[in-house]
What we know:
This protein is 70% helix and 1% strand. The chain contains 17 helices and 2 strands. The protein has helices at residues 4-8, 14-41, 46-63, 78-109, 121-144, 154-164, 170-189, 195-209, 217-221, 238-270, 276-292, 302-310, 317-337, 342-356, 362-367, 370-385, 388-405, and strands at 71-72, 299-300. Strands 1-2 form a two-stranded antiparallel sheet. It starts with a helix and ends in a 14-residue tail after the last helix.
Amino acid sequence: xxxxxxxxxxxxxxxxxxxxxxxxxxxxxxxxxxxxxxxxxxxxxxxxxxxxxxxxxxxxxxxxxxxxxxxxxxxxxxxxxxxxxxxxxxxxxxxxxxxxxxxxxxxxxxxxxxxxxxxxxxxxxxxxxxxxxxxxxxxxxxxxxxxxxxxxxxxxxxxxxxxxxxxxxxxxxxxxxxxxxxxxxxxxxxxxxxxxxxxxxxxxxxxxxxxxxxxxxxxxxxxxxxxxxxxxxxxxxxxxxxxxxxxxxxxxxxxxxxxxxxxxxxxxxxxxxxxxxxxxxxxxxxxxxxxxxxxxxxxxxxxxxxxxxxxxxxxxxxxxxxxxxxxxxxxxxxxxxxxxxxxxxxxxxxxxxxxxxxxxxxxxxxxxxxxxxxxxxxxxxxxxxxxxxxxxxxxxxxxxxxxxxxxxxxxxxxxxxxx
Length: 419
């Protein structure tokens, strides 16, 4: 369970440092708007996403089992985080993240890293698409500039959004649409350029220069902090432990699954092989570290890991540089980040949700065997209309039952995709 960093530093070269430096800075510029947008969508303060990307990102790269994994807050956690905050408050989320970190460390010690392969692919696809649906609907109010609050329940939220449509803000809609168009165009024209921050920065600058009636991070949340908060242990009692343990287990499950899937994607891109148990341990320490600084749950981020590889990242040093770059931005340029327009961040998350759903694979899902289609659909619907705990539990139970029922029939091989 030796971290990859310790192995790679034995033969580290100046050329590798140059490649890691460029990749780390590039990924940091991609992670900045994403981390802030994910925190806002989760119902947390923007600074929480910043802190998570810095602290958890550093620990995942320093202690992880992958050469190129980049960690931080991800879209998969938005649903869980929002639910925990709504039920237990932000302090409850911090405590649940701390407990999840302990669970992941224990899982790594018991060498549970290979168990992810036993989770049915249809379940993973189902809750991923379900999360994408929830993320997308949660971003519509800011994207359209709709004032007021909306129900958290999906079935209640849709008619409320439809009823509020006459009050949409054209400036907000235009800001969001232009941001999305710029992101797509920049990705195609300049794939090595950190197009996310460029697109969000350009439309946010237009909002400021033209004095458009569009909300920004600063206007809604105030100034972003310019330093990390002092670490402190979360408050835990026996009663709160019982209440928060189910949420902690879901956070640990998501962090473990997504980090190992991301590491497998990275292996395919670089022709390497990650150390799954070291990766689980790193996710555990990263979530413990993030909670000590009041951050969000964290895991390996598939999109940011792929960006790191495409930018030339060679070793975990790139992930450490990514974290230190974000810390430098926090200390030197946090006031500027406060001018980011909320519809621009919503447009970014709408694209993230679309990519999470992997529309290019919908045809393959429809052509899969009926039992897999049913399992995907059940998990998707339960994720959207109930909660992730019920969806994952039901999906895995049904998936294992189906696997037992078709003994002797080989499951098709599958590998995670680059989302």
